[in-house]
Amino acid sequence: MAAPGVKSASRALAVLELLAELGRPASCGELAETLGYPRSSLHGLLRTMEGQGWLETGDDGTYALGIKTFEVGNGYVRATDLAGTARPFMQRVSRELNETVQLAILDGLDSVYVAKIDGGQALTLQSAVGRRLHAHATGIGKVLLAAVDPAELKERLAGRPLTGYTPGTITDVEVLFDELDRVRRQGFAEDDEEYTPGVRCVAVPVHGVHGEVVAGMSVAAPAFRLDDERRRLALDLLRAEAGQLSRALGYLPGRGR
Q1: Class of domain 79-248 as given by CATH
Q2: Is residue 105 within 8 Å of residue 79, measured between CB atoms?
Q3: pLDDT value at position 67?
Q4: Residues of the chain with CATH 3.30.450.40
Q5: 200-222 residues labelled b (16+ CB within 10 A) or e (exposed)
Q6: Are the C-beta atoms of 78 and 208 separated by less than 8 Å?
Q7: Could you tell me what percent of the chain has a pLDDT over 70?
Q8: Is there a contact between 242 and 86 (Cβ–Cβ < 8 Å)?
Q9: Which of 1, 35, 93, 167 is deepest in the core (most CB within 10 A)?
Q10: Range(s) for CATH 1.10.10.10 in the chain?
Q11: At CA 127, angle to CA 118 and CA 155, rounded to 5?
């Protein structure tokens, strides 16, 4: 028997799918009859979904898809379009270095990887599109966190410990904020074996049309290959290609948000 939380989630998803299929608002009674759910329990679920923006109610008491569904769907489209647009720029970096190049976006306190180009080395980074990592422990994640307003970031971090993965992981909030200040000043971030022992990373931001940071692009490689000289070369290549990608997304350097 499914746990109550799982059952509620399944029912919420079924409501969204049905309303999307109908293409019009529906009453609680119609939803209950079509889905075969008890009207009494469904009513409470619908009110909860309304309160969180997933549904909207009309003057006649019917339910329609809410603004949250648009935001989530639009986010998926943006990530998909972003990955496709970014691929040629990432490929140029990867070809020059023969190393792994990644693209990620921020979701809360996590970086979500939306594109990856593997290098041709025998020893490569084991990561995947769709993977979610705690942003404070990676170079690409720190680039993304540095773009968040510090006051908002403090709210996100409230009561959330910073997980340590290696001896080099930043686990103190004040140290993290100092690091993010440095990232903002220099325009790039590094990860020196902070998430995975033996792996280094250098990352830069990708800007959108209004100057906002929409993604991070990184080169990650075994530490013995990404020495200081190669790191500087990787940073130069990332800055050039991320700059070109930002322009392709409509960003004009020098224009503020």
Answers
A1: alpha beta
A2: yes
A3: 79
A4: 79-248
A5: bbbbbbbbbeeeebbbbbbbbbb
A6: no
A7: 89
A8: no
A9: 93
A10: 4-65
A11: 125
Query: What is the Cα–Cα distance from 25 to 51, expressed in whole angstroms?
Result: 17
Helix (H) or strand (E) holding 204: strand 199-207
Distance CA 104, CA 250 (A): 19
Secondary structure percentages of the chain, helix, strand, coil, to 5: 50, 20, 30
Q: What is the pLDDT of residue 8?
A: 82
Q: Please say whether the beta carbons of 11 and 37 come within 8 A.
A: yes
Q: Which of 120, 103, 93, 135 is nearest to 241 (CA)?
A: 93
Look up residue 86 and give its two tokens.
């970014």
pLDDT at 1: 36
Whether the pLDDT of residue 4 is over 50: the answer is no
**pTM for the model:** 0.70
Measured in whole angstroms, the distance separating CA 54 from the mean position of its chain's CA atoms is 20
- Given a contact cutoff of 8 angstroms between Cβ atoms, the answer to whether 127 and 161 are in contact is no
**DSSP states of 115-168:** EEE--S-SS-----TT-EEEGGGSHHHHHHHHTS-HHHHHHHHTT------STT
